[in-house]
Amino acid sequence: MEYLVVGSGLFGAVFANEAAKRGNHVTVIEKRDHIGGNIYTKPIEGIQVHMYGAHIFHTRSKKIWDYVNQFAQFNNYINSPIANYHGEIYNLPFNMNTFNKLWGVITPAQAQAKIEEQRAELNLMKPPKNLEEQAKSLVGTDVYKKLIKGYTEKQWGAKATELPAFIIRRIPVRFTYDNNYFNDPYQGIPIGGYTQIIEQLLDNKLIDVRTETDFFADRANYLKDYPRVVFTGMIDQFFDYELGELSYRSLRFETEIKDVDNYQATRS
Ligand SMILES: Cc1cc2nc3c(=O)[nH]c(=O)nc-3n(C[C@H](O)[C@H](O)[C@H](O)COP(=O)(O)OP(=O)(O)OC[C@H]3O[C@@H](n4cnc5c(N)ncnc54)[C@H](O)[C@@H]3O)c2cc1C
Fold this sequence. Notes:
Elements: E1 2-6, H1 10-21, E2 25-29, E3 41-44, E4 47-50, E5 57-59, H2 62-69, E6 82-85, E7 88-91, H3 96-103, H4 108-121, H5 131-139, H6 141-156, E8 186-188, H7 195-202, E9 207-210, H8 219-225, E10 228-231, H9 235-238
Parallel strand pairs: 1-2, 1-10, 2-9
Antiparallel strand pairs: 3-4, 5-8, 6-7
The structure holds flavin-adenine dinucleotide.
Residues 6-12, 29-32, 37-39, 52-53, 55-56, 214-216, 232-233, 251 line the site of flavin-adenine dinucleotide (FAD).
């Protein structure tokens, strides 16, 4: 069988690898000038820079963990983010460390009581009609104001009062002193970056990789020439925006090189 895979990110590369292992010929086309999709990493100044944002590999499946460990050695990184609210540092996801810093509470019962007190003040009679009301109804006013509002409005490019309530159905809150962002038992970042994983996945003589090649530049011919197409790009674009444009959350990266040993104190 002949396959066309559009996109050389983690999904496209794993698919191509597995298809080739089963004797299929796979052409991978990638519109960027490099493989790897959003997990692409590149060494700059001795640091593996995650060019499209930091990526932590995490899974609850031992099978997936063993699979990915064939291609790289992982470090023991545990994602424990911190939020900087006008110079005040808070632990995320919301947990007892966060609540202690916010209110000075020490026990789970005290933290729960504080959240309940703030929810009660809201006088919740009707279902929340926007994201702001929804978030406040889940975690109270302080957590919303300091740790949800700014982040959410920046990512969505819209006011929280203009965003629909359903975006936040639940907000994970932990009543333990646990800063680990993920619940998965397997977690880490590959030493030497992610690109090596993609390179190895695509390293098969049955796989032909073409970068700087956009599917939409020659879509009709691709669909004619390949009996099976795996598309990993934007799904609304694939359907010619027939049902309108999806509202993607987006990020703008501004890069800077600082002449310091450790700027953010995330890891030595
Ligand atoms: C800032 C950020 C941080 C993240 N952090 C994490 C994390 O810590 N842990 C985690 O598990 N996940 C994380 N994710 C999610 C993770 O990046 C994705 O789930 C994963 O990389 C998706 O892989 P993919 O192969 O499906 O898509 P992508 O990596 O997006 O690959 C799709 C590829 O298709 C190409 N393409 C698109 N359209 C075309 C076209 N028309 N023609 C040719 N090529 C095309 C693109 O250029 C791209 O290379 C994060 C995502 C972002 C944005």
